[in-house]
Amino acid sequence: MAEAFIVGAVRTPVGTRKGALAAVHPADLGAHVLKELVARTGVDPAAVEDVIMGCVSQVGPQALDLARTAWLSAGLPETTAGVTIDRQCGSSQQAVHFAAQGVMSGTQDIVVASGVENMGMVPMGSNVKFAIDAGLPLFGDGWTERYGAQEISQFRGAQLMCEKWGFDRDDLEAFALESHQRAAAARGAGHFEKEIAPLAGVTQDEGVRPDTSLEAMAGLDPLREGWAITAAVASQISVGASAVLIASERAVKEHGLTPLARVVQLSLVGDDPVYMLTAPIPATRTALKKAGLSIDDIDVTEINEAFAPVPLAWLKETGADPARTNPNGGAIALGHPLGATGAVLMTKLVHELHRSGGRYGLQTMCEGGGQANVTVIERV
């Protein structure tokens, strides 16, 4: 099987839903990172065979095959095709998988994996609003026969995880505070500067709260009475875009590209869709087994902080080192622009491996429907 190499990884700053990036059209967000990726890698854009873009709410400004419109909006060659995909929060991590699989299969040599989500312009859930407004069910008869009419939501899933693993509000808030502290320290030390392409006057991630405290978090109401989940322990509603260039060994040589990481393992696992957020645990076990690695071999992990119980349960079940997990903070502090987050995390992972000198990195995230991707890479 052919090898796949990551030869470029870039992202916008992650903006808040009311920040400067919220006014930028999603196609222009995508165009910005695509142009920057081409410029930074020096790749001939005409040699790019496909642009695979993750986007969750594919409606309004994020409709019409955003991958294609973003590429063309960037002024890049019309000869390159684009496809937009939805694996919920893992959409652009799946884009990385599809791009790597195309290269590893030998059918493609240079593919862009990317993601975009402007949650300020296109609110979360916009793509299901039609059904809700029309009074139509979101699930059909087969689903109802299997799972009943119970609530299926990420919020309930997060609370169910707290109950299953015994996390209380103090546990969640302590984790959230550390996420902000790590992100603030990393931002202050300039750890994100090489991976960020400033846009609309925004040069750094907007959601980090260096001055937040346990006392401030304690003053927030839970999402529902009796729950441990509050806004403080959940990922932020955000705006952002990201892009990763994946190339074959042949393309690296022919185009004079510089490998940053080798793709080691690509795994995908489904789990309980009611709990929804637990799949990173079995997916990590699957990926490590297939890669012939242990959790102790992993130098840096990026696991999406959709809600604090997700990484907390993952840490408890895998035995991973907390110090190596989201070392520069996660989505609780840095934000979660849905379809863009997968490639954002991969960009952070690649750059952190090079900054720290680590060898292996692992990325995973929970996804709607009870799914999780895991990507293992090796620094080159």
Automatic annotation (TrEMBL):
SUPFAM superfamilies: Thiolase-like (SSF53901)
Residue ranges annotated for the Thiolase C-terminal domain, each copy included: 257-379
Active site, UniProt feature: C89, H336, C366
Keywords: Acyltransferase, Transferase
Domain of life where this protein originates: Bacteria
Location of the Thiolase N-terminal domain: 5-249
MF (Gene Ontology): acetyl-CoA C-acetyltransferase activity
Broad class of enzyme this protein falls into: transferase
InterPro entries: Thiolase (IPR002155), Thiolase-like (IPR016039), Thiolase_C (IPR020617), Thiolase_CS (IPR020613), Thiolase_N (IPR020616)
Catalytic activity, EC: 2.3.1.9
PROSITE patterns: THIOLASE_2
Protein family according to the UniProt entry: Belongs to the thiolase-like superfamily. Thiolase family.
Official protein name in the record: Acetyl-CoA C-acetyltransferase
Originating species: Spinactinospora alkalitolerans
